[in-house]
Design brief:
Blueprint (H helix, E strand, L loop, with lengths): L1 H55 L6 H23 L2
């Protein structure tokens, strides 16, 4: 009779340990999912920030014309210097 009682006790211990392992695994999965949700929220915020930075750093309208004018002024200044200095 003692052997049968010990066997049932072992079953209860085994089932308790199995339940505890499943509960710990479920808790770990819940924490991971919670952190993933927080990361997703931060990613959406970062995406909005990237869009704002993109809008603020687009090329200036007419920058090619401004650069062309600057180059022409530089060439004219060099030509004037050559005339003034004699080189």
């Amino acid at each position: 009779m003692f052997v049968v009682t010990a066997t049932f006790t072992d079953w209860y211990i085994g089932l308790s340990l199995g339940f505890l392992a499943v509960a710990i695994a479920a808790t770990i999965v819940a924490v991971i999912l919670s952190l993933a949700g927080a990361i997703a929220g931060q990613a959406q915020t970062a995406e909005g920030g990237v869009e704002l930075i993109r809008q603020q750093t687009t090329t200036l309208p007419g920058i090619a014309q401004i650069n062309d004018s600057g180059v022409r002024i530089l060439h004219s200044a060099r030509a004037l210097r050559k005339v003034a200095v004699g080189k």
